[in-house]
């Protein structure tokens, strides 16, 4: 049984289902929810406006708070605790950089907007192919 689980989350339904899967199937695990705010790019997106902030770390934390509120509410339904963390960068790279601190990664099969998926690529596919630890992809 896995004891340290990383659950990358955005505000998508698939990410929520991944967390629910982790909570249901690993009730005694230490869960960490990771929200990655994408890097600013010429194509726009939420992270581009963050690049103009004076307090980048504070803006990233504020951006992640609604995702974390949803994650905490879901965890409370299972009487579970979780840890939350934020990263700024490319989502797949940020997840893979953290992978060795965990026993397994549980993530949704897709998330974000269509534009995000076209520009950034399929995060789940990249993590699945390159992860040094087991990956569970929830659909």
Automatic annotation (TrEMBL):
Domain UspA, chain residue ranges per copy: 1-139
Gene3D superfamilies noted in UniProt: HUPs
InterPro entries noted in UniProt: Rossmann-like_a/b/a_fold, Universal_stress_UspA, UspA
PANTHER family documented for this protein: STRESS RESPONSE PROTEIN NHAX, UNIVERSAL STRESS PROTEIN
Protein family per UniProt: Belongs to the universal stress protein A family.
Protein name, UniProt field: Universal stress protein
Source species: Haloplanus ruber
């Amino acid at each position: 049984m896995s004891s340290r689980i990383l659950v990358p989350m955005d505000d998508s339904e698939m990410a929520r289902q991944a967390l629910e899967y982790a909570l249901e199937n690993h009730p005694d695990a230490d869960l960490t929810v990771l929200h990655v705010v994408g890097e600013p790019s010429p194509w726009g997106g939420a992270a581009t406006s963050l690049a103009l902030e004076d307090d980048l770390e504070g803006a990233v934390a504020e951006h992640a708070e609604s995702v974390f509120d949803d994650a905490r509410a879901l965890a409370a339904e299972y009487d579970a605790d979780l840890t939350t963390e934020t990263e700024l960068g490319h989502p797949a790279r940020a997840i893979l950089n953290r992978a060795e601190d965990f026993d397994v990664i549980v993530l949704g099969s897709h998330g974000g907007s269509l534009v995000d998926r076209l520009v950034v690529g399929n995060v789940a596919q990249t993590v699945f192919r390159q992860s040094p630890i087991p990956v569970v992809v929830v659909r």
